[in-house]
Amino acid sequence: MFFTQLLVLFNPLYLLVILVCTIVGIIFGAIPGLSGGLAVSLLLPLTFGMDDTLSFAMLIAVWVGGISGGFISATLVGIPGAPASIATCYDAYPMSQKGDTVRALGIGILASFTGTVLSCIVATLLSPYLADIAMKMGPWEYFSLCFCAITLVAALSKGSIFKGMFAAFLGLALCTVGVAPLDGAYRFTFGNIYLGGGLDMVALMLGVYAIKQVACDYAKGQQDMPEVKVGRISGFGVKLRDITENLGIIIQSFLIGLWIGFLPGMGSGLSNMVAYAQAKSGSKHPETFGQGNPGGIWASETSNNASVGGALIPMVALGIPGDAVTALLLSGLMIHGLQPGPLLVSSNPQIVYLIFAAVMLSAVFVLVEQFFGMRWFPLLLKLPYHYLYGVILVMCFIGAFTSKNTTFNVLCVLVFAAIGVVLDVFKIPTSPLILAFILGPKLEEYFRKGVSYAKGDYTTFFTRPVSLIFLLVAVFCVVSPYLKPLLTRKKTAEVK
Amino acid sequence: MKNKERVGGVIFALLGLLVLFFTTQVRMPANLSEPGPRLFPYIAGAGMAICGLGMALTAKQESGEPFLTKEGWKRLGIAGLAMVIYYIGLEYLGFLIATPFFTFAIILILASGKKLNKVANGVISLATTGILYVVFQKIFIIFLPAGKFFG
């Protein structure tokens, strides 16, 4: 099935779309402030009128390009294009400053490719098995799984746990607007016919993600890039020795990235830091890290790209997005009338394998484009922001309109952007809000169905073992930050 | 900084209470064997209120730069105003008339006083409008706002 879908993509139109979208993704990934996620949210409305294959080829290509492109600015100017490439700066930039720019870029390109392709192979092989297991679950387990995912994202967000949880509850409140599941009761519509259908996912994404980003960057005056000072860029830069000497780091970082990507809420933004720290602590010469050690670049870039496949596994097999970008892809599936979850693998296997095939093909395109387009990387960072941001803003407004075919949705985008700014002011993370907004309706439906099937018995959520495990994991995530200091204090007291 | 966090926490808690209040007005169908449509809004409202209070009570003194300077807020206000005007333009004048003007204006605003080639800006504004119109309306047959005055 995988190869059949791969062959489907070998159509001139799809290949052209993947080629263009991977380039767009690389550009968005390379420019600090923009990201692959932003590119996905901008392209999402464009897919309304397209067939499934073209839509997913487009979204996946821009996503893969975006994740990979983050290392370009990290290498050339020492500013990560995305949080996924923070650790890349530590060694790629010093290496570039020493005059080894081509080698640093070459390692980044090859590491990105390795991480994406290997993780996609694992995702292709594992997802059907995970979906088979998930098929045996009832509404109780699904409720607990969704609850666990939201709690994980909220509890593991940066800063205070109250902030993460507040964002999740806000997302839950927003998703209850409109007609309630099961009984069709109207909630928080205040007589407005547009609110009857609920708030729009695309409007939320564009407002909280894209417009807020552009407006805040402008307000902070963060539109100017430092000057790119690199020598002549030519050749591919990577030697076989660079690979063989760092094979251990590559394998270790790949596994770290895959696992962290698999867990909800902990995407490439975390995996690159963990993999880098592991590579440094396991090295015989940790003092060389931060001064242009190729191992540091391998660790960061392999792990952040391995998170791509890792995040695809729960998205495809369980319908649970790992982060904001996979949440966007998930909403893309929903827009096309597909129901994400374990049934997707059995009812629409062609879509599932198409996604994997698109990731694989996009990774190859990104590899070729980056190796041959390396000399133009400095130009990417000289793109005038005002033109780029101006066009992005217009696309956001039009995307919101086309999503529901009403200007009321455009107003919603503005309100969501304002909410995004307020959350930013108080350093409240947006990922829990987005995840709760997407999973909220499912969470409510499964909970109410679970209670209804059990004839009003709430204890079923705790008496079914799988459901109980998910609930315990969720509770542990919330409680653990408070338990840790208590345990440490107790241990210290015992030692004294 | 600490005060700002406290005030924010209290406002968020009040927002949660507001959600709780409006939830009481949701109609409950009779003879339900499950919790009904009020449960999740109640959970959301109560959660927001508790977390808001938690934020207010655990607010810490934070050093560092403020989120935006006074000038930054002014810039944000101008960008926001331009977007609101564009929304009104889309509503009444439609995509084809409102978009080139908005694109031109927002590029000028985002350039923050840098020297800008007005002809290039005009070309980009018109090209953006034209390309989006052709791609959405002609290729994918997705309708764009026609405007109340013309629709």
Verbal overview:
- The complex is a heterodimer of chains A (496) and B (151).
- Chain A has 496 residues and is mostly helical.
- Helices cover 73% and strands 1% of the residues of chain A.
- Chain A has a two-stranded antiparallel sheet.
- In chain A, strand 1 (178-179) and strand 2 form a beta hairpin.
- The radius of gyration of chain A is 22 Å and the shape is globular.
- The model of chain A has no long low-confidence stretch (mean pLDDT 84).
- With 151 residues, chain B is an all-alpha fold.
- Chain B is built from 5 helices and no strands.
- Chain B has helices at residues 2-23, 39-57, 70-92, 95-110, 118-139.
- In chain B, helix 1 runs antiparallel to helix 2 (39-57) and helix 3 packs antiparallel against helix 4 (95-110).
Radius of gyration of chain B: 23 Å
Strand order of the largest sheet of chain A: 1-2
Distance between the termini of chain A: 63 Å
What fraction of the residues of chain B are assigned to beta strands by DSSP?
Answer: under 5%
- The count of strands of chain A amounts to 2
Order of helix and strand elements from N to C terminus of chain B: HHHHH
Shape type of chain A = globular
Q: Greatest interface and its residue counts?
A: A-B, 66 and 73 residues
Average predicted confidence as pLDDT of chain B: 89
Oligomer: heterodimer
Mean pLDDT of chain A: 84
Instruction: Tell me the number of helical segments of chain A per DSSP (H or I, 4 or more residues long).
Output: 22
Largest sheet of chain A: 2 strands, antiparallel
- Determine the N-to-C terminus distance of chain B: 49 Å
Helix and strand succession of chain A? HHHHHHHHEEHHHHHHHHHHHHHH
In short:
Chain A is built from 22 helices and two strands.
List key phrases describing it.
heterodimer, A: 496 residues, mainly alpha, 73% helix, B: 151 residues, 5 helices, flat
List the helices and strands and how they pair.
The complex is a heterodimer of chains A (496) and B (151).
Chain A: H1 2-9, H2 12-30, H3 36-43, H4 52-76, H5 86-97, H6 101-135, H7 139-155, H8 161-175, E1 178-179, E2 186-187, H9 201-220, H10 240-244, H11 247-262, H12 268-282, H13 294-318, H14 324-335, H15 342-347, H16 349-373, H17 377-380, H18 385-404, H19 408-425, H20 431-453, H21 460-463, H22 465-495
Antiparallel strand pairs in A: 1-2
Helix pairs in contact in A: 1-16, 2-3, 2-4, 2-16, 3-4, 3-9, 3-14, 4-5, 4-6, 4-13, 4-14, 4-16, 5-6, 5-13, 6-11, 6-13, 6-16, 7-8, 7-20, 7-22, 8-20, 9-18, 9-19, 11-12, 11-13, 12-13, 18-19
Chain B: H1 2-23, H2 39-57, H3 70-92, H4 95-110, H5 118-139
Helix pairs in contact in B: 1-2, 3-4, 4-5
